[in-house]
Request: fold
Amino acid sequence: MKFNQARITFILLAPLLLLFGCKQQNASPETSTETTEVSATPTSNKGQAFIENDGSRPTVLQVAIGSPDHTTLVAAVQAAGLENSLSNAGPLMVFAPTNEAFAALPAGTVENSLKPENKDKLAYILKHHVTPGNYDYEFLKKFKKLGQASNESISVEVIDGEVYVGGAKIIASIPAGNGIVHVVDKVILPAN
Reply:
């Protein structure tokens, strides 16, 4: 019985020993004088959001970055550290408030939200603008509510043929590689 256990153990470990032995055998006996450079890229600039890919449709984040009407939204996404979340495979629907929508908030709201000590609250508010899915303008008319990444839901209404989500009117829709950006005229604030 002990002989069989030893044999089974050897059979299971033999491929690992061969693999390790081959790697050691292929290693050069010479000492390398090369030095390895450490990347100066800050850890905050790593992840999917920072991979350049010119061969496909831009992500929802890249659509926002490329829009002169969404500089406040992009600054908020960066302050909240959500770049990678908006660059994942999705599909994602982002309800993107314009700079004018942010400017309509009470004075000092945006500046206060961008402070490092308010990062979690800002992230929560921004997640309230994101829904899993890739529904175009016409298809959204079929919904009454949408579940947001903030774990809250927002209402969907059609008023005079126009679509409103959480009280914000969709004024444009831009397809993206990982979803769709619906440009809205108001910041959609969560209930909590």
Observations:
- Residues 1-43, 46-51 have pLDDT under 50 and may be disordered.
- The domain at 57-184 is CATH 2.30.180.10 (FAS1 domain).
- The first helix runs from residue 2 to 26.
- The first strand starts at residue 92 and ends at 97.
